[in-house]
What we know:
This protein has 200 residues and is mostly helical. 68% of the residues lie in helices and 0% in strands. Helix 1 packs antiparallel against helix 3 (71-89). The two termini are 17 Å apart.
Amino acid sequence: MSVSGALLAPVRAGGRVAAAGILMAGWLALLWGIEVVNALSGQRLDTYGISPRQGGELLDIVPAAFLHVGFSHLASNSLPLLVLGFIAALGGIARYLAVALTVVLVSGLGVWLTAPAHSVTLGASGLVFGLFGYLVVRGFVDHRALDVIVGLIVGVLYGSILWGVLPTATGVSWQAHLFGLAGGVAAAFLFRDRSAAQAP
């Protein structure tokens, strides 16, 4: 690394931290704003949740990830989404958005295919599980020691959420959790840092 590169490295790192923080703060503000509107409308936006195996409901896969069944539901997702999203976004905003979209689509499609009939699924928990899976696997895929360590720390801190992929609680979409996790692992491979993986 050149002298100028060494001097600019902290500036670039600070920019990534600021960008990741702004992105996730904005994301959470959007979710809370949507839920305020939803509450004031008598939860009318819940109609944009996913009802399984109905063709038109495929259009609700993305909106469903931004809706929640009340403020307590949103609050339970907010902190893990903020933390995991921030860590993931440190790797680049474009990469984060690609990962998040992949997780939302895989999780939503899995719900659409496998959720019980007459159910409606909505919430950001599929994205939370996806980001968890992405962060745990990313370091091994990219062959980066620091990301492996980050993934291990994430696994220790949030590993208990894996119980959520089991059909043990009524009213909780284990399908969204399971397919979200799968989407996050897939995204780690789809959007891996090829230059890092090929480095000698």
